[in-house]
Amino acid sequence: MNQPNKGFSIREMIETNKKKKYSTTNVFDKVMPFLLFLSAFVSVVTTVGIAFTLGFELFKFFERVPVAEFLGSTEWYPLSADQRFGVWALVMGTLQITVIAMIVAVPLGLASAIYLSEYASERARTILKPILEVLAGVPTIVFGFFALSFVTPILQAIIPGLKIYNALSPGIVVGIMIIPMIASISEDAMSAVPKKIREGALGLGATRLEVAIKVVMPAALSGIIASIVLGMSRAVGETMIVTIAGGSQPNFEFNPLNAIQTMTAYIVQIAKGDAGYGTIEYYSIYAVGALLFIFTLVMNLFANWVTRRFREEY
Predict the structure, then answer these.
(1) Are 303 and 226 in contact (CB under 8 A)?
(2) How many CB atoms sit inside 10 A of residue 111's CB?
(3) How far apart are CA 8 and CA 25, in angstroms?
(4) Radius of gyration over alpha carbons of the chain, in Å?
(5) Which residue spans traverse the membrane (predicted)?
(6) Nearest residue to 149 via CA among 135, 174, 170
(7) Closest by Cα among 45, 168, 30, 5 to 97
(8) CB contact at 8 A, 93 and 246
(9) Nearest by Cα to 254 from 173, 174, 176, 167
(10) In the chain, how long is the greatest CA-to-CA distance?
(11) Is 268:205 a contact under the CB 8 Å cutoff?
(12) 253 CB-side CA count, 13 A
């Protein structure tokens, strides 16, 4: 006589569990959009806050230094008695580091991506790619001392007269540092190319190298260019490597054998206490920071445009 009641209680439990599951899912669906919106909102507010802070302090700097001197002069001596604020000396140092870094990183990064995507076995890929990406997690100050105490002596043995502080050594090490970024993003873009495209090219008699260079790379061009631009942004914003191994001599000359000072290295120098709060030297770091912010923003916007412009639909 109790059997029907047991059956009824089981059905009741099932219905109750369904209601609880539906209730939990319903709450989750309502909460998650708010949390995601909050995350996006915090990112936007942070960016606006950075821009506002830089702009406010930048205004104070240009109250004392003419814009024409800042953007039109090539002499940067903010801590001397006869002060000069021509930012192009710092821009030239940053440009030297970026150019040398990209000369090192682009060929090696793309070669690594081609090997991982087209030649490496699945087992080799699962082992080598994480090892390559570990390089991106090494603190930049370690790279800085590596450049100063290991790379520079080797270069001095090869290039007579090379100074202990120079642009060549930190440029090479910055390039080594951004290889994982270029290799990883490019490999992801190349791996996303459908296998049927490779098989079609191989069926027409192309070699694996020809398939990689003439078929896969053009198909993954948006991701490859985006990785290069992002790597360039990383090189422009690098701080500790150039501070330790590049020296502190702003010069408007493209000579990688001499000491330099980049925009980020100058910010570090002043932030360490070389100038008091409220002085013109103090406000100059905001002017340099604003210019650096504009450079990196433009490059990131360019990377996004390239990604949309050259994206392939499969």
Answers:
(1) yes
(2) 13
(3) 26
(4) 27
(5) 34-56, 85-110, 131-155, 167-190, 211-230, 283-306
(6) 170
(7) 168
(8) yes
(9) 167
(10) 105
(11) no
(12) 9
